[in-house]
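Memo to structure team: turn this sequence into C-alpha cells by end of day. - J.P.
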Amino acid sequence: MAHVVVVGAGIVGLAVAARLTADGHRVTVVEKEQDVATHQTGRNSGVIHSGLYYAPGSLKATMSVAGATSMTRYAHEHGVDVETTGKLVVASTADQVAGLHRLAARAEANGVPAHLVGAGGAREREPHVACVDAPWVESTGIVDYGGVSRALALEVTDGGGEVRLATQVVGADERADGVHLRLEGGGTAELRADAVVACAGLHADRVARACGLEPGARIVPFRGEYYELAPHAAELVNGLVYPVPDPRFPFLGVHLTRMIGGGVHAGPNAVLALAREGYRWRDVNLRDTADALSWPGLWRMGARNVVPGAREVGRSLSRHAFARSLAALVPAIVPDDLVPSPAGVRAQAVARDGRLVDDFLLQRTARQVHVLNAPSPAATCALEIARHVVGSLAIG
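Reply from structure team:
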C-alpha cells in the first residue's frame, strides 16, 4: 500500500483521491482553502457536457463522452441531484448553419448522441428560441458538482484517508525514498509521500514549479461572469440553450442553463482576470497580474483574438450588451431580466507561442503527476481523468 498525496480538493483532485482509496492506497488530500470545491468546481454552471465540441480522439472528447455516463451514474448512486436534460445548440441566423453542421459532424465523429431537429423541432423543446436549425444533444445534463465533491471526499475519509484543509504546498523534493513536501498551515511542516498527484487548478503551474517541474505553459485566469434570469424571464427557457461557438475564440459563448436548484443562469462571458481568484473587476493581485502580463503567450494570444476579446470586455461592462447576446438566442430577453450572479474563473493554460492549450495536459516524473490544464469540461470528466491518472502512477 502506497501513501499518495493529492494536492487540490476540487472535483478532479477528489476523484483521484477516491479512486486511489478504493484501490487500497493511503491518501492525504492537501487543500489550501477552508472547504472543498471552492473555485472552479463550485462556481461553474453545473453542466454535464456531452463531448460535442472537442477534437475527435482528444482526451476532452473521449473523456466527456464517457464522463457524461459515469458522472450521471455516480450522482444517482450517491444521492446527488442530477438530471439529464439534453440541450439545443441554436443557429439563429442563416450564416451560422454551416458552422452548426460542422458541429453536428463532430458530434457524430465523437460518438455523441445528437441529431438535427430543425427550427420546428427546436421550438417544440424551446418555444421562445430564434432558430434556423439546431441539433438536439441528448446526453447533456445538469448536476450539483459541489455535492459530488462532498461525496468523493467522504469516500476518502471513510476509506481511512485524510482531507487536510487550510494547508498549502510550498515546495517539494523528489528523492529515492519518495517525495518530501513542504507545507504551510495544517500543523505539519513536512510530509513524505510515495507519490504525488497535483490537481491545483488555478495554481497548477506554480505547484508544478514548487515541486521541481518546469511546465511549458502558464495558467492565465479568465473570469466568467454570469447573470441569472429574473423569475418572470426564467419561464422563457425550459432547459439548456447554446449558441454556435465562434471558431476564432476558445470559449463557447454566453448561453442559457436551467440550474439543478432552480432558476436559469445566463453566461458566462470570458475576460482576463486580474487575479487568479479574481471574481470581480476590483479583485487585483499584483503577483498574478505580473505573472500574466510577463508571459509572452498572453500577448500573442491577445493579438490573435482582438475582435472577440473586445466583444467579451464589452459584455462584461454593459448589461445591455450581455442582454443583446442572449436575445440572439431568445429574443424576448431584455436587460431588465438580468440579475447579477456569482462569477467563476477558468484556469486556462496558455503556451509561450500564444496557443491556448486545448486539451487536458498532464506532466509526469517518476513519482509525480501534475494536471496542468483541466478547465471545462474537467468536472464532467473528473472520474475519467482519475482513472487515467491513477493508471499512469508507478506505485505498488
